[in-house]
Amino acid sequence: MLTKRIIACLDVAGGRVVKGVQFQQLRDAGDPAELAAAHSLEGADEIVLLDISATHERRATLIDTVRRTAQRLFIPFVVGGGIRTVEDAAAVFDAGADKVSVNSAAVADPALITRIALRYGSQAVIVALDAKRKDGAVRFEAYIGGGRKATGLDAVAWTREAEDRGAGEILLTSMDRDGTGEGFDCDLTLAVTDAVHIPVIASGGGGDAGTFLDVFRRGKADAALAASIFHFGLHSLGELKQQLRDAGVPVRWPC
Amino acid sequence: MIALVDYRAGNLTSVKKTLTCLGVEVAVTEDPAVVAQAEKIILPGVGHFSATRILEQSGLRGAILRRIERGVPFLGICVGMQVLFESSAEAPGIPGLGLLAGACKPFPANVKSPHVGWNSLDCSDCSLLRGISSGSFVYFTHSYCAPVVEATVARCEYGREFSAAVEKNNVFGVQFHPEKSGSVGQALLANFCRLPC
Fold this sequence. Notes:
The complex is a heterodimer of chains A (255) and B (197).
Chain A: E1 5-13, E2 16-21, E3 24-30, H1 32-42, E4 46-51, H2 63-72, E5 77-80, H3 86-94, E6 99-102, H4 104-108, H5 111-120, E7 125-133, E8 140-144, E9 149-154, H6 155-164, E10 169-174, H7 186-195, E11 200-203, H8 209-217, E12 223-226, H9 228-231, H10 237-246
Parallel strand pairs in A: 1-4, 1-12, 4-5, 5-6, 6-7, 7-10, 10-11, 11-12
Antiparallel strand pairs in A: 1-2, 2-3, 7-8, 8-9
Chain B: E1 2-5, H1 13-21, E2 26-29, H2 32-35, E3 40-43, H3 52-58, H4 60-69, E4 74-77, H5 79-82, E5 87-88, E6 103-106, E7 115-120, E8 122-123, E9 137-142, E10 144-145, E11 152-158, E12 160-168, E13 171-174, H6 182-194
Parallel strand pairs in B: 1-2, 1-3, 3-4, 4-13, 5-6
Antiparallel strand pairs in B: 6-10, 7-9, 8-11, 11-12, 12-13
């Protein structure tokens, strides 16, 4: 049976893992390669490395960090942040990534999704989307530039377009819940999982096992991603998977 | 020496890294002459079934088939396994290697496609899966799947039952990505590397 994936995310700035709350107040959380290897041993099903400073500081993704991290991993490895061209993606693939995640650049130039998919296959292209509730209602707007800039795009409509253009998966982050541990935005997740026919990774708000259970059951997420709860040892990945298994969620166990 | 065939169907970095970690000598090559000397051949692939045309045009197809005929162990990964079959709905009219009967098909419409993530194997006794038990999880990412045939040694279920691994004499194939499947995948690649040449 296909399992629900638990994905550990490393937000990287200046070659170090950092984590903020609602995209701000960054704290240092360690070396990317070391943390990725540790998470993999604990049972992470996939690792995402996001260069969160790349877009607004206009820096290239940290190829050296990607290479060092890939060297330690034998599970799927995704890299995002600052990927604007097929050449940017190629550099990340050459350094050992299995998939790239594109966000701001895909909004500015949606054909980028197709260009990367044609060269590396759709399975290698994740479209990441930072979404925020509009006026507290069950409508969501897509943001770019690390959550700094509203696009005016309806988040659900944008994921549909991303799928049509060749995205293999959607990485959907709730800006309202990011870093809070209060639970994923299941309304947002469900709106997107119902709209597209490709896997959706829910992100933002992961806390205890109940929050993951909720996003798998109510949000119909295919995978759930979290960062800070794993880095700071608030929850162990192994315990989380054990609790999900006890609740009847199919997970990869033992790892 | 293992020839890791580069036919420009995506990314070989992970497969090469995993084999290197197992202490195996690997040559990444698009040269039929190198394939003709190889003790083992791995055909990776995360691309499109139509990449088989590149095998034809480059002369790799003939080189691979001749080595297989001489008993050289061959492992196809993902699309590299699908090309062992006769054809695929992904690329109508383009023939596969035809070493196994049957055609690859898309998943039924009631499940999401691509099939992405960790799914469990239902394994039979065979040399490729030695030490790997039924229920082990491996990582898949694909939109088309191969039928269950006589050569099937591991099945997987997603929308329908399909071949997760095949084995026929010296010809092996896996639909999943052993290089991305943690310790289970490393054990499988080690089994392949240990096969007598």
